[in-house]
Task: inverse folding
């Protein structure tokens, strides 16, 4: 049962597109508690949300704990090997029943008064039950289970709403890009067994959501990293890497995939590098091992090269999953002003240990605790949030490139409408996922 909220937010007034100002949004979208609660209820509790990957719970009785919106949940592979998502909430007085981040257990025992649940969700023991006399609850007191799960290429999504958009319809065109990412593995599967780390920033969750397809910021926010990468790209076999990044590269394309999903499409820019790719996640070059194994699998070297050319694409799956380079990333809204980003290094099944180790090291260089890239972004998110304190001018401008949008086919032969939605090199770059996010929010919130 969802908590009803008032519909007093006038989203139309907070999002403006007009000839004088172009496209702009009001920064209250980042700092209004009611908007945040509506996002939780109507996006995270009613819609589809990424929960975890099958390789994180490979064995019978494996579990990991996650948070869905703000609700703690358990992703469990039960004794019957079936995967389920439960709210991590005791039916007695509501305590979380599982505190471990991950593990293998047939049971979840609440620490407060000892009620016990099986990993299939059944309440199997009420401690000192006789004291309840005839007042034992008679209704179903099992763990609350997400009524709908969706699976695609090992990625597990859940919805807390019994009815709603069918899973594959929700995933839509994001599936093409997820498939290409997984097909990069010789055995067509990725695995997320290297653990994860999280970074918490003091800012709204949408800051990260917007950022992944914002190619505009890289040249400035990541100037140090780009200079370092450029300095290290001189060895034979590496791709040319300029310290300007891809900002004005006419081949860098941002595509709207519909439904809130988006991609920063790297196919064309990687093709321009010939057989030297940036960010393949292996050794910095187009690995002969990977291409050779895929070519054998597909019976086509051309197809293998095409798959690897998608290497650097940044895939955003609304609202909380991001897949890029060597890792899977999730957005965890903690509160209106606090978010945690989790990074899961993604290894390629069927690749050599050398390749997978290189991927992890490459990921660590950019996004590890002392990485070159992640801290830059987090700092920018916090500064942007700080800017929302002043209401003197509450408008945020996201109109760059909007006047030069056009439709073209992506590498899967599908018209993206519009591609370059915020990018029209050399002048355009960021109009922002916020454009779409707010429209999505707008479309989904009023019921
Ligand atoms: S709150 Fe869980 S047993 Fe009492
Ligand atoms: Fe960044």
Result:
């Amino acid at each position: 049962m969802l908590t009803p909220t008032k519909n007093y937010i006038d989203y139309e007034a907070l999002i403006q597109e007009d000839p004088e100002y172009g496209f702009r949004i009001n920064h209250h979208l980042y700092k209004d508690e009611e908007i945040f609660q509506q996002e939780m209820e109507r996006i995270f509790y009613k819609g589809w949300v990424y929960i975890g990957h099958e390789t994180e719970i490979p064995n019978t009785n494996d579990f990991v704990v996650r948070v869905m919106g703000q609700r703690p949940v358990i992703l469990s592979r039960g004794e019957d090997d079936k995967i389920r998502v439960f709210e991590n909430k005791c039916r007695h007085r509501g305590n979380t029943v599982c505190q471990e981040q991950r593990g293998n257990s047939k049971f979840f025992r609440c620490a407060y008064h000892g009620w016990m649940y099986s990993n299939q969700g059944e309440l199997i023991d009420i401690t000192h039950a006789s004291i309840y006399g005839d007042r034992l609850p008679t209704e179903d007191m099992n763990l609350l289970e997400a009524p709908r799960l969706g699976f695609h290429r090992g990625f597990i999504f859940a919805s807390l709403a019994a009815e709603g958009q069918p899973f594959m319809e929700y995933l839509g065109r994001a599936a093409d890009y997820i498939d290409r990412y997984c097909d990069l593995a010789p055995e067509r599967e990725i695995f997320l067994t290297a653990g994860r780390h999280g970074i918490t920033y003091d800012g709204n969750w949408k800051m990260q959501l917007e950022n992944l397809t914002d190619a505009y910021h890289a040249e400035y926010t990541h100037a140090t990293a780009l200079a370092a990468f450029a300095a290290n790209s001189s060895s034979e076999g590496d791709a040319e890497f300029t310290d300007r990044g891809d900002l004005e590269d006419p081949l860098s394309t941002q595509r709207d995939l519909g439904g809130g999903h988006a991609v920063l499409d790297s196919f064309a820019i990687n093709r321009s590098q010939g057989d030297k790719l940036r960010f393949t996640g292996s050794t910095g070059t187009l690995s002969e091992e990977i291409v050779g194994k895929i070519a054998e699998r597909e019976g086509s070297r051309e197809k293998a090269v095409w798959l690897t050319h998608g290497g650097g694409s940044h895939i955003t799956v609304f609202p909380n999953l991001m897949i890029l380079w060597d890792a899977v990333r999730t957005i965890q809204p903690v509160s209106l002003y606090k978010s945690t980003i989790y990074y899961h290094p993604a290894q390629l099944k069927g690749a050599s240990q050398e390749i997978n180790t290189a991927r992890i090291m490459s990921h660590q260089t950019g996004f590890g605790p002392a990485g070159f890239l992640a801290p830059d972004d987090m700092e920018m998110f916090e500064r942007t949030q700080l800017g929302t304190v002043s209401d003197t001018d509450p408008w945020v401008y996201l109109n760059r490139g909007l006047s030069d949008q056009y439709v073209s086919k992506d590498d899967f032969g599908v018209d993206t409408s519009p591609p370059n939605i915020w990018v029209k090199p050399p002048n355009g770059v960021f109009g922002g996922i916020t454009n779409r996010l707010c429209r999505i929010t707008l479309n989904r919130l009023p019921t």
